[in-house]
Amino acid sequence: MTTARRAQRAVLPCPRMRPARFDFRACLSVLSCLVCVSSGCASGKSAQPAVATPAAAPALAPVPRDPVELVVGAPDSVVLARASELRAAPLFERLRPYVERATCASLSEWDGLVRATSRAVLASRTEGQSAQWLLVLDGSYTEADADRLLRAAAQRTPRTAPAAPISVDRSGRFAISEDDVLASSLLEGRLLVLGHKPWMRAALDAIAHPAAKLGDLALWKSVAPEVRCAEQALCLLAAAQGAGARSLQRGLSSAGAKGLGQQLSAADSALTVSLPSGAEITFHAQLPDAAAADAAQRGLKDNLWQVGLLTRLAGLPDVLSAAKIDVRGAALHGELSVSETDLVRYEQRAGQLLSEAARQDCGVATAAP
Q1: How far apart are CA 126 and CA 135, in angstroms?
Q2: What is the rounded CA–CA span in Å between residue 54 and residue 323?
Q3: How far apart are CA 9 and CA 1, in angstroms?
Q4: What span, in angstroms and rounded, lies between the C-alpha atoms of 32 and 53?
Q5: For residues 177 and 292, what is the distance between their CA atoms, to the nearest angstrom?
Q6: Contact yes or no for 235/271 (Cβ under 8 A)
Q7: Tens digit of each residue's pLDDT, the chain (369 residues)
């Protein structure tokens, strides 16, 4: 070995290195330690029990957006009004004095409530020997509005004894103001529900507990769409053999159309009124079969001809002769258009009749506008 080689080995005394071997047992030891720590067994301590997370409260059922959904059960008759469209119609202001005469009340104190309302649904039914009603207003209201409406309704409701003082109760998450007959509740400041206590409470209960309602009936699902009830300014629905249908039967019978009255009282029916400038009226009745619909069509045409004759004799325009009456399977369908000019003539005559009635019923003397 040369002197240079010996000097290099003296400066760098590095032995030959062998490749390191993978220590499998050491690796397992480290992993087991990590698992033990993560599971709570480090330092010989037992695992701590997991802390239970409180269960989230069940979500509350939403309050319906459509006031029709609060009409539960099977009403005899229903009136739906799109208040915003009625207010915009030229006929609205002209009808105000007639309504005041018919109700013996001034409507000026209710102007604010009327302006705050976009839609209204009024339903009626008979339970046992008593008539009940339910009113649902859709708009923007305060608790003061609800209280004032309840007190006004309580004053006008027939009773066998003096009304009990109004008290406050609850139905689930909703507050209720009630006396011994009527009750009201304001839902989210936008739906004002008022009516006889059993029906009003059932309407609130149906929000959280589904129940049969108007929307489930053939009257709403089959008859109402034929006149586009939900889209019109005013829509009247009458269930077969209900109080409204029986009232129609009595009215037709007194006018000499007893047979027609019997036929129509056995039918689910709907009538709508649209008020662009004059009036557009649509009627639809679902009869038991096509033969009954044919018979009703003949009876209705005969009756309209007779009434048209009487109106001409009274000096009023005969608008009924232009009515279109046809049969659609087992249904009777009718449409009538009344011009604004003819409508004003009838308004004037109605004003005279209501003025006479106001003098007798309200004890006041009023002049026709």
Answers
A1: 15
A2: 67
A3: 11
A4: 29
A5: 47
A6: yes
A7: 444 444 444 444 434 444 444 343 443 343 344 334 344 444 444 445 555 565 566 678 899 999 999 999 999 999 999 988 888 888 777 777 776 766 666 777 778 888 899 999 999 999 877 889 999 999 999 999 999 999 999 988 877 778 788 999 988 889 999 999 999 999 999 999 999 999 999 999 999 998 999 999 999 999 999 999 999 999 999 999 998 888 888 888 887 788 888 989 999 999 999 988 889 999 999 999 999 999 999 999 999 999 889 889 988 899 998 999 999 999 999 999 999 899 888 888 776 665 665 555 565 444 444
Could you tell me the two tokens for 369? 């506008």
Of 74, 83, 70, nearest to 187 by C-alpha is 70
Can you give the C-alpha Rg of the chain in angstroms? 38
For CA atoms 121, 127, 132, 137, the dihedral sign is: negative
Q: Which pTM value belongs to this model?
A: 0.77
- As a whole number of angstroms, the longest Cα–Cα distance in the chain is 150
| Pairwise CA distance, residues 261 & 250, whole Å | 7
